[in-house]
Amino acid sequence: MITVQSFVFSEFQVNTYVLYDESKQCIIIDPGCNNPRQQAELTGFISAQELKPVRMINTHGHIDHVAGDSFVKRTYDIPLAMHEKDVFLLEKALHFAELFDIFAEQPPVPDQILKEGDEVHFGNSVLSVFHIPGHSPGSIVLYAGKDAFLIAGDVLFKGSIGRCDLPGGNHETLIKGITGKLMILPRETVVYPGHGPVTTIGHEYDTNPFLQAK
Ligand SMILES: [Zn+2]
């Protein structure tokens, strides 16, 4: 069974997630930790739980979600995985850091490209990859069907959806992806978003103002 540990990091209040199971292997998702105190919080948790990081994943390439990539790579020397359509954002990371006034180091080049339908394995667990563009061209959602949760990145929030006015964004594409791929999942599926509180597919299906039929 997968345990989800969340952290809130950086000026952008990004949710960083550590996923682990009984094997003690873990995956680090969207390491937003961009100062020593937050970086120590992440590594302190991993040491205290005696976890072994095996991979890092960016749900997408926006600067707040990748600001700590370089730190994680340096600390654990694990592969970085993401969708290829957001790699251009990583390449311009320092430009975006300046633009959005956030401290970040240049992220490493991704080691592994994830695409729709891929599976990410760690320990005894598996995550399915959904490609849901619209917030960014290469946004992915990681779905743990057996454990009934998903890591949504900035695709879906409690009561909202990702903004679509950044480079490569598209509102219709995002809505289509959310309705076609996420709203068909079991209602009890827990949604861990890239910012803000946890929700469920059922709650968003019923109440999210962006997903109600016009
Ligand atoms: Zn974003």
How would you sum up this structure, described in words?
With 214 residues, the protein is of the alpha/beta class. The chain has a single domain (3-207), classed as Metallo-beta-lactamase, Chain A. Helix content is 26%, strand content 29%. The chain is built from 7 helices and 14 strands. The protein has helices at 36-48, 63-66, 69-76, 87-91, 93-99, 171-182, 201-207, and strands at residues 3-9, 14-20, 25-29, 52-57, 80-83, 112-114, 119-122, 125-131, 140-144, 149-153, 156-157, 160-161, 190-193, 199-200. The strands form 3 sheets. It has a 6-stranded mixed β-sheet, covered by helices on one side. Strands 7-8-9-10-13-14 form a 6-stranded mixed β-sheet. Strands 11-12 form a two-stranded antiparallel ribbon. Strand 8 and strand 9 (140-144) form a beta hairpin. The radius of gyration is 16 Å and the shape is globular. The termini are far apart. The relative contact order is 0.15. The mean pLDDT is 97. Zinc ion (ZN) binds at residues 60, 62, 135, 154.
What fold name goes in the CATH topology slot?
A: Metallo-beta-lactamase, Chain A
Principal-axes geometry comes out as globular
Strand order of the largest sheet: 1-2-3-4-5-6
> Using only CA atoms, what is the Rg?
16 Å
Indicate how many domains the architecture comprises.
1
- For the report, how would you describe the main beta sheet? 6 strands, mixed
Q: Would you identify the CATH H-level superfamily?
A: Ribonuclease Z/Hydroxyacylglutathione hydrolase-like
Per DSSP, what share of the residues sits in E-state strands of 2 or more residues?
25-35%
Query: What is the terminal separation in angstroms?
Result: 39 Å
